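Take the subject:
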Amino acid sequence: MTYPGAHPAERTAILHADTGRTVTFGELDSRSDALARFFRDAGVARGDTVAFLADNVPEVFELYWAAHRSGLYVTGLNHHLTPAEIGAILVDSDAKALVVSPARGELAAAALRTAPAVGITLTTDDGAGGTGTYEQAIVAGAAAAPLTSQPLGATMLYSSGTTGRPKGIRPPLSGRQVDEPGDTVVAMASSLYGIDESTVYYSPAPVYHAAPLRWVPAVNALGGTVVLRDRFDAEQTLRDIEEYRITAGQFVPTMFVRLLKLPEEVRRSADVSSMRTAIHAAASCPVEVKQRMLDWWGDVVYEYYSSTELNGVSAIDPATWRAHPGSVGRAIVGTPHVCDETGAELPAGEAGLLYFERDAVAFEYHRDPEKTRAAQHPSHELWTTTGDVGYLDEDGFLYLTDRRAFTIISGGVNIYPQEIENALALHPAILDAAVIGLPDEEWGQSVTAVVQPAPTATPCPELAEEIVTFLGERIARFKVPRRVLFTDDLPRTPTGKLVKGALVERYSTAAP
């Protein structure tokens, strides 16, 4: 894995578009080196964990490289969690240090009351030119003795928690040095997407999530420049692509939907000609949404499927996707197997629980052997699942249908909400939608659509009937929701995943 010091010191590694701040490769190298030395002198040893609770600020990636050049784990904390939930992750990960951006200071203080083992808390600059404890640590580290060895660290990530409490994934340290090759994401970025020193990569997603925390450093490792945004905004994204001549970026399907729902004149006037690679992952993309993005941006929309656990990876390029619409591609890491509830392998075309076979155990959930065993195939220890349901076609292309935990069983029939949500995605009166199963005395579960109307739409019985009719023309009748409920918001993670447990809880006791 190439590290920032291998690239010309004066070139821009990260541009924070919201503030205009730039970090050169030389600064990223020297500041991460100084922070690594500070941690070493403070007693943070190889195999220990450092965490961050921060907005999308460049310091996160200084911390990332400090950990990765000194054999530490780095853990990102979702600032949408409660103090108790954040404290639980700090305790579970054995975090020895926490880096906090000023806007998250109050949340961090509350979380730290339940995590007394975190001995070091560093607050980053507030942007006003002050000298926070983080900057003091950089100064102290720069004055310390050089690192004589730079063992490669790792990310210790936590699952998004959409189907339960977040689970920690702590991979074993590789034993390599930071400048040795072998990183999966760096290899994918280079071989699949052509990321190199000419790349200008756009990253508006929360940096605590697996994709930005892995892909931004991978782009920097290959010499590319990252344009970092605090959050995604559809119109701002189009302006940024034109202004910064963005060549690559990572998106999630909800971002595509927001882009496609911009006024036609806004989309038509946008200059996206610089884009070479628009990568999407994290959630399945409705076929119509992706088709329209390809028609608009051209054959630059690439997809990969993976998980926080990285137990398997599939990928597909635009031309291949056009021949296999809806597929997430063929496996490039691990061998996929689709199995029924007993563990028996299913033939091509039949949907079941997706396992990936590796030549070694792909992951363990930290301090949770029960969940680790539950993720393993009943007969094959090296086959693991993260709970996704899908099928393989005769040519080995993988199609996802939903999460096992989200499957609705109505009248004894399995119904996959994702198919219905995909059909709803581009209805002009719908801003966002989720489909859940609610308790039903007759059917076991009743298929229910929860719809967030577009700003120009009025929730009413007539709109509900219009939505039902719309769906009846696109999917089998037995899948059409029996009820349409309206809401002002849907609980999604910032990476686009629906937190359906919260929706089911909200509506299970509500009046029909």
In short: The chain has a mean pLDDT of 92. Residues 11 and 381 are 47 Å apart (CA to CA). The two ends are 56 Å apart (CA to CA).
